[in-house]
Amino acid sequence: MTKLLSRSIGSLLVLAALYLVFVNITLNLPTTRALLNALQPEHVRITWHHAWSLYPLRVELDGVVADGQTPAEQWQVDARRAAASVSLLPLLKGEIRIHDLDLEDIDLRLRPRPPADGPQDALVAFFPVIRDRDPDAPAEAAPEDPSRSLVLEIDDIQVRGEHSFWVSHIRGSTPGAVRGSFRMETATGRLALAGGALDLALTSLTVGPKQAVTDAAAIAGTIDIPPFIVSETKGLEMMRVLELDARIDLPVQNLDFLALLMPVLDEIRLSGRGRLRGRLALSGGEMLGGTDLVVEAHELAMNLGRYDFSGDGTIELKVDPQDEAQADLLVRFEEVRAELEPDESAGSNTAQVLFTGSGLTAQLHAAEVDPTTTSTAERVEELASEVELRFKLDIPSMQVPDLAVYSRLFPEEWDLALLGGTGTVAGALKVSADRLSLNLDLASDDADLRYRDNHAIADLLLRLRARVEDSTTTRLRLDGTELHIEDARLAVTHGGAKERHPPERHPSSEPWRAHLKISDSALRLPVSAGHADADPVPAIAETLQEEGFGAVLAGADGRLSAVLTVSHLDWIAELLDRPLGLSLAGTGELDAEIVLNNGRADKGTTLTMPRETLSLGILEHRVDGMGTAILRMEHAGKRPRFRLNVALDDARLRRRDESEPSIGEVRMDAEILMTDSLAHGGDSADIKLKLHSARVRDMSSYNAYLPANTPLALVSGEATLAGDLRLKPDRAEGQLLLAGEDIRVRWDRQELSGDLKVELLVRDGSAKDLRFDITGSSVRLEGFRVAGGAGSASAPDWHGRLQLDKTQVRWHKPMHLDMQAYVTVKDTRPFVELLDSVRGKHEWIDNLLTLKNPAGHLRLTVDADAAVIEDAMLGAPQLGIHAKGRSAASDREAMLLVRWHNLSGAMELQNGRRHFEIVDAPARFAAYSPGRTPLRGHGVPQTVAEDRSGAETSSGAAAQDRTPFSHDKAGPTHNTPPEGRQRPTPTQNPFLDDSL
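Structure (tokenized):
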């Protein structure tokens, strides 16, 4: 028994020895390699430097070199050492089944074969070249009989050491350990890895032409790769192959991998370098719950359209552990600098700084539309339709070095811009598939604003609250938007009005403020032609990125309701281009209804000011009181038409140069129609003034319109005033009625008092020049008392009337007047009073007092220097009073010619001195020209002439009675009387005809 056992053991030892000798010799024979490679040389070849086997079916190899080719790709695997156990039965089926494979220091390379009838991959230059294989060999169709294919299965593979890989255009090196089960079909090129475990340090990774992505990395976890064909797996499908759950810690040189993990990041371009840490779980190309990655980035940059953000910060990528259909990407800048890329189409090549600061965050939330399905998209555009995205950008308070870049907030058509200044900005932007909201707070205490040609330096606070909603139509809401302008000082610009930095601007001394708050809005936004088939909100978000909010607002149609609080209303006058010196003063709240068409104010836009303290200035006058104002836009476009209605009551009227008003209790309506406010100068203005009532508190205020040293003066009295005027820059028409009671008037050395009524008819004129044609107007004196020897203050029965003919006036201080008028009075008492000193010597003068209802004419010119009576007459053919004279600041002179049938006398008056002469009186009067010929009688003792016959009476004087203006050589412009109208003679008194 012992002997048999010994023989058996010996036999086994001999057999073992023979096995070791035979197998180990055989494994190292070239013939063995040749026979093995002859099985399917076109699919796989393998060789080694040394091989041995210590027991059957277990082989260990040194210097293993293998390569192969499938219909779809070429491959190559090199290993410093390999040990494996081989199953014999599968070999009979054409399968190589290896288990317990140990590999050390492997180099894996995989090259997809180019298509036979299509273009090559764009990255083919970065593919590995497989040893002893033709890199240009085209891909082949999979064999129809899969039984002839060679299948390589490796169960329980363990890889250790320093490894490298080069798969397609991705290459790298990764020391560490890998465990799993591998399967490859040579006929189809199908690969698979099951039960994989990783514990690798990824020392480098290069994708195509780019620099290394990682350096000194670490990855540890599990991995499974379902069967796939490398050449048929492209784009995002590569991400769907891996089943991975690993913890990683690696430095990154760029952030391109984020776009692979979250392909919807295509619209948010991220770049930078730093270190990636966290857990990554993938299945079917989708991140799983529990994925939590953090990148600590240096030189972090984020791009949103034309907006660039740069600085240091972190990036967090998370998948909700409770709902793996929800993923979030958070970019947080510790320090940030935001810039607007230059607009090359506008000829700009310099980026503008938006703001600098810290704490900016950007968050992208992605949710699967249908979490129960797996994405089949091959491109980012297709994937975007399978997920719902929400983006949020939070901007804490940041410093703005130059406000000019924020002019993009306003449409270009508004001609409104920020030219400069420093300030702060804060805000938030939220974008989803059907909604967009923008909150922006822009503040500055030295903002340089420009509207048209006007500049202002001001404290500025803009709170923009914009929301875009996609329902049946795309709507823009601006509810809650506010604009505060404080301590604004208008600046006078010297140089180009629209230059970004005008050469000189000098702030005005009086500050103003304004506050606009939008309470309600309903605006519609069109979608541009380039985005007609796209979702409107993403298209609007793209416009916002590329062109700014002003471009979004430029297409808005609809209505805005707002409250405008202002310290000065004069900006309305500026908007209308100040026709006829229009000005508005006042403060208060205005209700604004703004109609927009393509972002511009349109017909129906209205500003309404409730009853407040208000001041209206037109021409040389201003009205201060309580009133309301309504501004309406009646036509939009290049020639906008505005209508301003102002209603004032309990107001006071004065000239702009007067410190105190002279007219009170004013109730007036003003309507200003501005046809083209862009015409400059207000030449297209049409102004209607309706003066319902007013009271002149002191008639003496009108003395300022008379030249200095004039003999006529208004002493006191009150009057009512009413009228209706229509004014254009080169036209004027209307009427005014002034009615006064107990008006005291000083005429030379005597006073008259009574009632005054002025009916002023404005037939034509030039409003901007304050020149009016008042032909047809009348002045009536009723119930006047004449004081002095010729009349009694107790007889208030004197009256008179002037009917103006061919009269023009320029309403300045003093006024310019060129007047021709018909005159009628009750009697001659005020004029005979001038002859009071000679009445006792010439009793016939008293007979003039018996002249009742005399009529005559008056030719009077008044300018800033003097008032000149060129010709005046009262009386009848055989009796009357004639006058000429001139009153200036330094000299006053006049001559009166009195006639009583064949008796006449001339009274010369000069600077308070009087001289009466009856010798040759008519001739002397005819020769006298005020201001041009001297008075000859002063300094000569007064004489009393004898009564003369009617033959001695000047025929010239009588001729003047019959033809009142026959001696005039020149008169006012437009001096042709109305057609069919004849000048009455003194015997045809027009004022005694009640029909006139």
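The mean pLDDT is 80. The chain has twelve helices and 53 strands.
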